[in-house]
């Protein structure tokens, strides 16, 4: 590859990695508070994307209003999942919560299969996202520009929330000790609901950008991106918000570059994230950010 092609693939990798990072942040926030791997998170991403689709096509909302509505409704979905499925198991064993998360994942997937069928639906791409820029021979689709910018903006806002607000202080306190935080007068359940709301809204944002980049929706679309986002969260140091975003970028760039450099391995590109996950768990289980195992933000 020449220099232009390398830059082209890096741009593509950064764009893809930003989508993994948005979803991974939700994984890592929920783990940081509850020590729960929410395997339904990728399916929450799928639900948010479907909401945006029907908001645009059925209710004829402007794209920006549809995207905001999707994030808000998906945030409420996250709260509902926590309240119905996870809250009754707060004091149960972790394996019970994990099995419940898998059950919620299957429920969402099969519910949407029944309601909307398995035939992929086309996602309408607004004109603002449909163009390309040519910069020195490097083709920059508008979506590839918006995706990393959106991811970095959300990451900045979230870090400000975590480190400069009372709610953020409560979240960080919960990540250390839930019962002690409860004794200090914090409404633990309300803070956990807020964590689920934020994580689910970010998953919806990632899903919408994913649909703009790959405009084909089906009820199982969240499985693979969700698992790769989980690998990104572990790579970055699960429980670390910035680490999850960094892990997403690393996996996205690695996936694109491997296919570009070794086209014969294109059929195995989805296995790369899981290979990285295995290597991280073997050699540096705390992730690249090097935090102690304990889920601190």
Describe the structure.
The structure is a single chain. It is globular, with a radius of gyration of 19 Å. The model has no long low-confidence stretch (mean pLDDT 92). The chain has one domain (3-283): ABC transporter involved in vitamin B12 uptake, BtuC (Orthogonal Bundle), CATH 1.10.3470. By secondary structure, the chain is mostly helical. It has a two-stranded antiparallel ribbon with strand order 1-4. Helix content is 71%, strand content 4%. It contains 11 helices and 4 strands.
Task: Give the proportion of residues in helices.
Answer: over 70%
Unreliable spans are none
**So what's the CATH class?**
Mainly Alpha
Average residue pLDDT: 92
Number of strands: 4
Q: What is the number of domains?
A: 1
Helix-strand pattern, N to C? HHHHEEEHHHHEHHH
Q: What is the approximate shape?
A: globular
Q: Using the 3D structure, state the CATH architecture.
A: Orthogonal Bundle
Short précis:
The protein is mainly alpha-helical and 297 residues long.
